[in-house]
């Protein structure tokens, strides 16, 4: 066991670190493109409801479990149930998810770093859309570039996590998060001056259900897990460094509001730019890496805006990556009694290696096409299968996080002792009145919602003819 358990230096430090975990590629890369694909409007409204009624209660449950047990996920389930209990499986799943998610997350973060670099050295200004498309293809297909940036990003993440809770995680969040908000604000203010702003605002907020499918609704629900870093114990881990008397309800609300604000601001900044130069909002995953550079290339001030945006994306990815690695590291510190330096090097090093096939997915037959033809037999992705990178993303977001989230909700609502649950929720909060509402959401609404995501992921709803497009 660790001699003395680490703790956050301040409440603000915890909130910034938790917000740092939540705000990431999910907000600035994924949310805008799924909003674009689902036609904005209703999709955004449904997403907001998922955050409020599913994500937020689970976040409170995670922080409560971690703070009450003062232990990382596996140990927390043991402390609050009993040794050898099947609930420990939820903790194990979380640790496994940390390895899986960070291994490919780091590859995308590497792209953001590469784009920061080329926007500074070569600039996109004056390049044609074809040239910019080629830049992305060249990166995607290059084993060398992918491996280089993946390794560099992991090395930075390892360095920060190794420095510990206060001097690493908290200090980094205190510097990077305010910078991130500032950069986002600058880009947002710029976007308000463009011609496309009005059109973008209407696209995002006007109630338009045209493109929304049941699968889109479930996508919003699934994404609310990923974006708030739920279902794998990241918030259990961060909550375990919190003092017992801190107000977890207010902290969870603050983190969720910050996360949602960043996601909406990202849309309000990206779509005006896209509309101003006449591009499509439904550009898919290439929105940020192809459409946005194309737009910047044509805009006044683009040479400055582009590096600003990609630094923002890199910072957002870094604070999330830190939390992913911390889940794995805290397990080895708490359960195996390892020193932080050893735990960080071993976990970070393993994730670096596990990420290699993802880094090579675009450029090698082995992890791209050959792997894809293997996964065809799983009948995923409309029978097309996935390359290694997409497969990991699919397994983590469709299986591991919803399953973990379901386990956490059920555990907090039914298994944690009633007294510990109530006292934990009410400690130091002015929101004590919300207690029963929270318990009811966790007991009934969350499990049903998560079960639906899960059934959609395994294609059951699709087979019953209830959703248009399944996984
Ligand atoms: N919330 C992060 C994002 O939106 O990019 C991703 C993430 C971080 C998921 C940490 C899960 C996690 F534990």
What does this entry show, briefly?
The protein has 471 residues and is mainly α.
Report the principal-axis shape: globular
What is the CA-CA span between the terminal residues? 42 Å
Q: What is the succession of H and E elements?
A: HHHHHHHHHHHHHHHHHHHHH
Q: Helix tally?
A: 21
CATH homologous superfamily placement: Amino acid/polyamine transporter I
**What structural class do helix, strand and pairing data support?**
mainly alpha
**Oligomeric state of the chains in view:** single chain
Q: What is the CATH C level class, in words?
A: Mainly Alpha
Under the CATH scheme, the architecture is Up-down Bundle
Low-confidence stretches: none
CATH topology: Amino acid/polyamine transporter I
Q: Give every kind of bound small molecule, once each.
A: 4-fluoro-L-phenylalanine
Overall residue-averaged pLDDT value: 90
Biggest β-sheet strands, sense, barrel: none
Q: Proportion of β residues? A: under 5%
* Count of DSSP strands: 0
Which descriptors apply to this entry?
0% strand, binds 4-fluoro-L-phenylalanine, mainly alpha, single chain, Amino acid/polyamine transporter I, 21 helices, 76% helix, 471 residues, globular
Descriptive notes:
The protein has 471 residues and is mainly alpha-helical. The protein has a single domain, classed as Amino acid/polyamine transporter I. Helix content is 76%, strand content 0%. It contains 21 helices and no strands. Helix 9 (197-205) crosses helix 12 (248-276). The protein is globular, with a radius of gyration of 21 Å. The two termini are 42 Å apart. The site of 4-fluoro-L-phenylalanine has 15 residues, from helix 1, helix 2, helix 10 and helix 14. 4-fluoro-L-phenylalanine binds next to helix 1, helix 2, helix 10 and helix 14.
């Amino acid at each position: 066991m660790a001699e003395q358990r680490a703790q956050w230096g301040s409440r603000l430090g915890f909130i910034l670190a938790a917000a740092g975990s939540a705000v990431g590629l999910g907000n600035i890369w994924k949310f805008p493109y799924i909003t674009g694909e689902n036609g904005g409007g209703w999709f955004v409204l449904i997403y907001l409801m998922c955050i409020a009624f599913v994500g937020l209660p689970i976040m409170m449950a995670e922080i409560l479990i971690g703070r009450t047990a003062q232990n990382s996920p596996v140990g927390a389930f043991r402390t609050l149930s009993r040794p050898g209990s099947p609930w420990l499986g939820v903790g194990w799943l979380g640790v496994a998810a940390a390895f899986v998610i960070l291994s490919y997350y780091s590859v995308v973060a590497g792209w953001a770093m590469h784009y920061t670099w080329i926007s500074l050295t070569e600039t996109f200004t004056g390049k044609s859309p074809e040239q910019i498309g080629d830049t992305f293809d060249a990166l995607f297909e290059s084993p060398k570039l992918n491996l280089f940036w993946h390794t560099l990003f992991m090395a930075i993440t390892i360095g920060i996590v190794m420095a510990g809770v206060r001097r690493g995680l908290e200090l980094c969040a205190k510097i990077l998060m305010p910078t991130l908000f500032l950069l986002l604000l600058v880009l947002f203010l710029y976007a308000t001056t463009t011609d496309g702003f009005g059109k973008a605002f209407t696209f995002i907020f006007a109630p338009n259900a045209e493109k929304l499918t049941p699968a889109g609704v479930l996508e919003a629900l699934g994404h609310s897990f990923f974006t708030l870093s739920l279902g794998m114990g990241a918030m259990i881990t961060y909550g375990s460094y919190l003092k017992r008397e801190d107000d977890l309800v207010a902290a969870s609300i603050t983190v969720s509001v910050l996360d949602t604000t960043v996601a909406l601001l990202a849309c309000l900044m990206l779509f005006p730019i896209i509309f101003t130069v006449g591009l499509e909002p439904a550009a898919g995953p290439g929105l940020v890496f192809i459409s946005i550079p194309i737009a910047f290339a044509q805009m006044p001030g683009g040479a400055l805006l582009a590096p600003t945006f990609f630094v923002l994306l890199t910072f957002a990815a870094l604070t999330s990556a830190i939390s992913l690695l911390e889940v794995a590291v805290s397990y080895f510190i708490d359960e195996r009694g390892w020193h932080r330096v050893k735990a960080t090097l071993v976990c970070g090093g393993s994730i670096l290696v596990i990420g290699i096939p993802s880094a090579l997915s675009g450029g090698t037959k082995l992890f791209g096409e050959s792997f894809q033809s293997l996964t065809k037999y799983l009948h995923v992705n409309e029978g097309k299968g996935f390359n290694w990178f997409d497969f990991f993303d699919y397994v983590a977001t469709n299986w591991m996080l919803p399953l973990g989230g379901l386990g956490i909700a059920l555990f907090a609502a039914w298994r944690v002792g009633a007294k510990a649950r109530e006292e934990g929720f009410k400690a130091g909060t002015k929101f004590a009145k919300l207690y029963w509402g929270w318990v009811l959401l966790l007991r009934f609404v969350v499990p049903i919602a998560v079960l639906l995501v899960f059934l959609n992921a395994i294609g059951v709803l699709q087979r019953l003819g209830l959703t248009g497009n399944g996984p």
